[in-house]
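Students often ask why inverse folding is considered easier than folding. One informal answer: many sequences map to the same fold, so there is more than one right answer. In these notes we will look at a single instance of the problem. The structure comes first.
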């Protein structure tokens, strides 16, 4: 006898309505109704509550078919959760790559004119222009080297998550753990990279260039 049939039988033996039974184990009447119709399978906690209330063993409530159904349901739920997690990793990593690759850091460049005239005579003229440019985080690796790690970690996450989505063998368990670990580390690295880039821009570090001119 399956769980839904057994539950209905035990409830009627005690002369209880669905609402009365629900109040005894502190759940809703709708939930009891779904249990008895076989629409859903009870959680472990509710199985224990029902077994305790009817003074029967849990094994008496759950048939082998019920146990198989619960196992399959748990595996399906776990698979969906993993798939959602991999999609989140891929989406986040692609976003990280885009943010690191677009020119969003403002920089300045002072351009000086070096005027040469006569023998061994060089005259430095005053500053003539200040140029403003937008560069990517990857363009300022010298001042923000951690950016390259975030970029590489993001590429690894995209590749490994895609592999895990299409190859769901249990042999990839180690890859799954490493993938999640790298993603967590990458979040920290990426945030630090962004902060470093903002700091770089706020320090107003200039690239001094020179233009030669002869009299």
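Output (designed amino acids):
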């Amino acid at each position: 006898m399956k769980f839904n049939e057994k539950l209905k039988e035990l409830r009627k033996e005690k002369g209880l309505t669905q609402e009365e039974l629900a109040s005894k184990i502190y759940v809703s009447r709708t939930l009891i109704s779904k249990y008895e119709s076989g629409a859903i399978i009870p959680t472990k906690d509710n199985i224990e509550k029902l077994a305790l209330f009817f003074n029967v063993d849990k094994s008496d409530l759950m048939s082998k078919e019920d146990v198989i159904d619960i196992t399959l349901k748990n595996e399906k739920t776990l698979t969906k959760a993993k798939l959602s997690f991999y999609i989140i990793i891929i989406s986040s990593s692609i976003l990280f790559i885009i943010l690191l690759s677009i020119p969003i850091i403002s920089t300045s460049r002072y351009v000086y004119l070096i005027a040469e005239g006569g023998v061994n005579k060089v005259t430095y003229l005053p500053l003539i222009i200040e140029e403003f440019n937008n560069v990517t985080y990857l363009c300022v690796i010298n001042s923000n080297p951690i950016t390259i790690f975030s970029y590489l970690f993001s590429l690894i996450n995209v590749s490994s998550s895609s592999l895990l989505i299409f190859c769901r063998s249990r042999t990839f368990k180690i890859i799954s753990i490493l993938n999640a670990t790298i993603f967590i580390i990458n979040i920290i690295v990426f945030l630090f990279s962004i902060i470093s880039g903002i700091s770089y821009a706020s320090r107003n570090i200039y690239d001094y260039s020179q233009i030669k001119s002869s009299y």
